[in-house]
Amino acid sequence: MSSPSVFCSEKLARLAGGFDSHAPIRVLVVEDSKTVRYQLRGYLQLLENVTVVEAETLAETRELLTHTPEPFFCAILDLTLPDASGSEVVDLVQTFKVPSIVLTATLDPMIRQAVLDRRVIDYMFKTGAAAIEDVAYLVGRLRQNREMTVLVVDDSATFRIHLSRLLEQYRFRILTASNGLEALALLQEHQETALVLTDYYMPKMDGLTLIRQIRRDFRREDLAIITLSDATHPDLSAAMIKAGANDYLNKHFQVEEFYCRIVQNINMVRFVRQLRDLANRDYLTHLYNRRRLFEIAELRLSSARKQHGPIALALLDADHFKRINDHYGHATGDLALKKIADVLRRGSDSHDDLVARYGGEEFVCFSTLTADETPACYFEALRRRIEAIDLEVNGERIPLTVSIGYTTDSRGTLSEIINRADQAMYQAKAAGRNRVVHFETQAS
Fold first, then answer.
1. Hey, what domains does the chain have and what are their CATH numbers?
2. Which of 67, 176, 382, 443 is deepest in the core (most CB within 10 A)?
3. What's the distance, Cα to Cα, between the start and end of the chain in Å?
4. 296-322 average pLDDT score
5. What pLDDT is recorded for position 8?
6. Separation CA 198–CA 443 (nearest Å)
7. Confidence band, pLDDT 50/70/90 cuts, at residue 231
8. Is the Cα dihedral 104, 107, 110, 113 positive or negative?
9. What sign has the CA pseudo-torsion 385, 283, 142, 133?
10. Of 268, 265, 153, 156, nearest to 208 (Cα)?
11. pLDDT in tens, 188-210
């Protein structure tokens, strides 16, 4: 039998990468067929940071769940096992609060209903390699769903809880509101929201008015809206879709239909966001590219000037980068740039900096400082963290340093500010590299 490395899937590759690394997850696979386990393991391992734990029987599954301290992200369960032939394995796994995907060769109406009653994520058929790939793809989507926010709007607390529980199965972040006014306030606070589920009949602001208000700020491709109402008013669906809803769902829905519509609309928003991110990001480091840097930095600069807030803009250049490329190869040079970008990204996450790849081995860091912050200390700390990067090739450590020039002079255009930082960076190079130089200091 071939190694799982022979598995290749463009579909899964799109889930494996991304601009932010995925946290490791553990997936439990309970399946007595070696062939199916092998296929599942192969496809799941195409996803990034996935550990597959396998069992062949109900007894082995119980042993794993009882004695494994680390939690499982989800479980993929065959209904027919040597020591079980129904929903026993689903009941067992759910006792440990592990969301489950049921994998089966056949599914008659009674078993289907029994599976759905147990609130599994989904059931899928073992109809060949393509179906197994779809199972792995669903796992990848579930992990991505943790980054997607869904807002549920309904005046019935019972129905809000019902929808929230269904969405939790698919690992979405969930917000809830009891009327349109509450929903609008939450959207202002959580503008990353990808989907709104809203009822029509609500106090203070009905669903139709809410949709019209949302569409003043969010386009259909940026934020999807699914409306829910009962079948007694069939004309509502057309009215709400014309007002700006993406989809309509009867409140007496089948769970499978609910999930299909949710996934379809979430995927549309996710796809648009990914395309937008690709246009705004550098392909190698996944930092913002030069074009996006100017767009965002202009806005931040304008805001800082209005609030009379201090700013600092730094240009960082990797030292002796041509030597790294020539001696160790361009693959090592690319790795060096990625590692520098990782340091800058971690710094920006904790400090709300704007970081971008400016070109070649140059990076820009735009920081809006607080009154008690010293930019010299901040950029010196960045320099030290980059100097401490552990980059090795064939057991040989490769020194990796940067020269940093920065300015706190916010006068003039953004290009003029960057030019001042650039002059300070060349001063740092001339002074011996691997140091931080302030433009005003060297120009005086």
1. 4-144 (3.40.50.2300), 147-280 (3.40.50.2300), 290-443 (3.30.70.270)
2. 382
3. 71
4. 90
5. 67
6. 60
7. low
8. positive
9. negative
10. 153
11. 999 999 999 999 889 999 999 99
Name the phi and psi angles at 392, rounded to 5: -125, 145
Q: How far apart are CA 186 and CA 183, in angstroms?
A: 5
Among 134-148, 218-232, 338-352, name the one with the lowest average pLDDT: 338-352
Q: What is the DSSP letter of 288?
A: B
How far apart, in whole angstroms, are the C-alpha atoms of residue 378 and residue 350?
12
Structure tokens at 442: 């060297």
The tokens for 173 are: 């972040």
Report the relative pairing of strands 311-318 and 402-407 from DSSP bridges. antiparallel
Which helix H or strand E contains 155, and what residues bound it?
Answer: none
- Contacts for 267-275: CB closer than 8 Å, 24+ residues apart: 268/221, 268/224, 269/148, 269/194, 269/195, 269/221, 269/222, 269/223, 269/224, 270/144, 270/148, 270/194, 272/221, 272/222, 273/194
Amino acid of residue 170: Y
Nearest-5° Cα angle at 262, 258 to 267: 150
Query: In whole angstroms, what separates CA 443 from the centre of its chain?
Result: 44
Residue showing tokens 């840097």 = 293
Cα separation, 124 vs 131, in Å, equals 8
CB 336 within 8 A of CB 324: yes
Classify residue 228 by its DSSP letter: E
334-348, pLDDT tens digit by residue?
999 999 999 998 876
Q: Which amino acid appears at position 356 of this protein?
A: A
Packing angle, helices 157-169 and 255-280, rounded to 10: 60
- In single-letter form, the type of residue at position 208 comes to L
Identity of the residue numbered 259: Y
Rounded distance between C-alpha atoms, residue 348 and residue 202, angstroms: 42
Question: What are the structure tokens assigned to 247, written together?
Answer: 């989809």
Q: At residue 281, what is the residue type?
A: R
User: What six digits make up the tokens of 117?
Assistant: 């009653």
Tell me the C-alpha distance between 27 and 136, whole Å.
Answer: 10
Q: Which two three-digit tokens encode residue 335?
A: 């790795």
